[in-house]
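ok new one. same drill as before - structure tokens go in, u give me an amino acid for every spot. 454 of them this time. try not to just spam alanines like last time pls lmao
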């Protein structure tokens, strides 16, 4: 069936275009904003080891599975799963994986857009010289000023949402493909320059030790859940984003190879961000576990005190905003593709609806840092709740189901055919990881957290 099928939404122009788009989805706030602060909150090295193991044993096999399902189904994740379930003679209910993903996408984008708004607002702060001569106090106050202002946060969140929906409305393979081609490598170079600056702080080794020297006494079931959840989050897995990008992938492109390239690039960016940030944290006597404000309070100190820092600061926050943009479009694409396919409405209209819903939810997130900061559900504010619910629960559950489907439900001849792996041993290795290792790992981490084992 799938061989003759083409996506109604178009296709990537080449293998490189797909790699760029999928890397654009994977590399984002998760690598530069989230990875350092959750590493800081969870004690450093041991957390990083667990995260790296999760990327290897769970992330890469599931990325291969998700891309493969997308390319075979060639539609939005909801319809793809429903067709593939048919093909495998399985129950239609598998299409709920697609629904779970669409909902997770809305929930993530709601807070993702608010944080991306912070990055945008820092472009302006950098431009106007606010970082100049910055120290922990002044940069802390600068960040607090933004946190305390619902108006500023809603404004920047709105700008970011508008940009996201504008690009999605035009289709993902147009302008974005070109922009990402240039922006991703530049971001990479800038991060390396920042690591260079971190080397001059006198605290470089301390930063590296924090990041790479594991102390397993620092880690508990929740830290392991956070590390696993982050592996899903940072690779954009478990919610159909990579599946929908896979559905635009031309035939005869090696899914395994591309998945490994994307995962390596993503991991490299996160580690570079950590190597840049922690030396600055220690050099300035800052708190590694200070939470979501970490990069906004540390990097401006570096920019404010280094030669050429004014320009680097501007460039950095522009690139961070673009990295966020190339991720945010993939968060909403599954929902938009579904609306276009099933509700028979134009892409533009689908974008307006999806965008408005996300924007509204995002406003509540922006308020959770100030006027609604006292409002909690299960002891968590709106931002924390959405983050926990999506990254730690919905993505791993989605990924678990995808692994089970690819490993157990789909006919092996179909997955073999779609993956076109020339080496049968590599296929068997993937099959083993996706059928046993990945689902078992997710299951054990959940059990541990529920407290049955831990
Ligand atoms: N991977 C993105 C990041 O690390 O910033 C976030 C993300 C994008 C998560 C797309 C999930 C997703 F489907």
């Amino acid at each position: 069936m799938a061989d003759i099928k083409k996506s109604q939404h178009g296709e990537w122009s080449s293998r490189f275009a797909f790699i760029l788009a999928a890397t654009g989805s994977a590399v984002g706030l998760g690598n530069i904003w989230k990875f350092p602060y959750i590493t800081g909150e969870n004690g450093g090295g041991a957390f990083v080891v667990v995260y790296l193991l999760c990327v290897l044993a769970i992330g890469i096999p599931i990325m291969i599975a998700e891309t493969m399902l997308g390319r075979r189904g060639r539609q939005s994740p909801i319809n793809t799963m429903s067709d593939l379930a048919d093909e495998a003679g399985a129950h239609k209910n598998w299409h709920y994986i697609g629904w779970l993903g669409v909902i997770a996408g809305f929930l993530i984008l709601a807070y993702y857009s608010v944080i991306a708004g912070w990055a945008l607002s820092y472009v302006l702060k950098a431009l106007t010289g606010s970082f100049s001569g910055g120290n922990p106090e002044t940069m802390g106050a600068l960040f607090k000023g933004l946190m305390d202002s619902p108006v500023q946060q809603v404004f920047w969140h709105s700008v970011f949402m508008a940009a996201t929906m504008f690009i999605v409305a035009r289709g993902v393979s147009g302008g974005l493909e070109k922009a990402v081609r240039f922006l991703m490598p530049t971001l990479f170079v800038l991060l390396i320059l920042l690591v260079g600056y971190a080397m001059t702080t006198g605290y470089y080794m301390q930063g590296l030790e924090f990041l790479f020297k594991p102390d397993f006494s620092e880690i508990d079931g929740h830290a392991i859940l956070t590390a696993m959840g982050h592996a899903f989050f940072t690779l954009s897995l478990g919610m159909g984003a990579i599946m929908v990008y896979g559905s635009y992938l031309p035939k005869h492109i090696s899914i395994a190879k591309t998945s490994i390239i994307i995962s390596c690039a993503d991991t490299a960016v996160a580690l570079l961000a950590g190597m840049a940030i922690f030396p600055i944290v220690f050099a300035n006597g800052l708190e590694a576990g200070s939470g979501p404000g970490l990069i906004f309070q540390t990097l401006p100190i570096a920019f404010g005190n280094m030669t050429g820092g004014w320009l680097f600061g501007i460039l950095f926050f522009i690139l961070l905003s673009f990295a966020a943009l190339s991720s945010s479009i993939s968060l909403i694409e599954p929902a938009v593709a579904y609306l276009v396919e099933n509700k028979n409405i134009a892409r533009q209209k689908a974008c307006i609806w999806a965008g408005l819903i996300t924007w509204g939810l995002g406003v509540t997130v922006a308020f959770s840092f100030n006027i609604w900061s006292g409002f909690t559900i299960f002891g968590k504010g709106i931002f924390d709740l959405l983050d926990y619910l999506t990254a730690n629960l919905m993505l791993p559950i989605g990924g678990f189901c995808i692994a089970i489907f690819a490993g157990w439900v789909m006919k092996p001849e179909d997955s073999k055919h779609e993956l076109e792996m020339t080496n049968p041993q590599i296929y068997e290795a993937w099959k083993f990881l996706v059928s046993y290792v990945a689902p078992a790992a997710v299951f054990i981490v959940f059990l541990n957290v529920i407290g049955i084992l831990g």
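The pocket of 4-fluoro-L-phenylalanine is lined by residues 25-26, 28-31, 108, 233-234, 236, 239, 241, 327, 330-331 (CB under 6 Å). and btw The two ends are 46 Å apart (CA to CA).
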